[in-house]
């Protein structure tokens, strides 16, 4: 392959991150550009581009499947750069059941996946057919922004519903996708093979809010404002991690903030009887105070979100670039 890619990797691989980052970036382009990139990157077997536009009403899910003798790669496109991220604006009516009874997921994300899952596109089904007919190939899934959310849901749907083993998932600037039950279920099965990249103040990985029941899982790789990489251990996100993540975006001292919240929750628990419940109520109230700001940022379009651009921000942090296309 054109990259130092390890098809059987079970730990974080810089070479895998660079290739999967490029795949996530090129997925914003048209079918011809995506295929050109795939061929040049060593995917010399069947290539299929999928788009739900004109197939599923009110849907715009896009991506591609590429493969060689060792790998099946699925890449999902995020929201187009000049479009508002309205899929994150409807925070309150977000939870929905999915193909497994464990937990609930963001309704908009799951509907976007279902628009290309088990649906004939161009006369034939692409997903999950290309995964179930993979042979001995390892399955790798990637995406940026909304595409990252779809990559996470695709992995869960493939593993739990279609019984397809997933070798690895790399996402970039991905929002939270499901509740704690969903997060714990997927993490128990795939968490050590899921890698979420977050670039400094990118607001998208901070939403939907922790206080609204959503949780990250897997392994977080964080690039700070000095472009230093910090790798976390695989885990389901807890309150301390969520506070720290939001604090880094809003210039808050997470430790000081957590101390203040704990003191406030302890006082409030004198009336309610539960420090944990009081703490969660306070965190949700704090998140709601910045909801207006977050809505404004998301409505401005993906190109206007600090540290969120796949090509200019994330690929640069990975130490690579994309030679084809213009829109990542």
Please provide a written account of the structure.
With 328 residues, the protein is of the alpha/beta class. It has a single domain, classed as Rossmann fold. Helices cover 38% and strands 17% of the residues. It is built from eleven helices and 14 strands. The chain has helices spanning 14-26, 31-40, 107-114, 129-132, 146-160, 180-190, 239-250, 254-272, 275-289, 291-299, 310-318, and strands at residues 47-51, 62-67, 71-76, 95-96, 105-106, 120-121, 124-125, 138-144, 168-172, 178-179, 194-199, 214-215, 219-223, 229-231. The strands form four sheets. Strands 1-2-3-8-9-11-13-14 form an eight-stranded mixed β-sheet, sandwiched between helices. The chain has a two-stranded antiparallel ribbon with strand order 4-5. The chain has a two-stranded antiparallel sheet with strand order 6-7. Strand 6 (120-121) and strand 7 form a beta hairpin. Helix 3 packs across helix 5 (146-160), helix 7 crosses helix 8 (254-272) and helix 8 (254-272) crosses helix 9. The chain is globular, with a radius of gyration of 19 Å. The relative contact order is 0.15. The model is unreliable at 251-259 (pLDDT under 50).
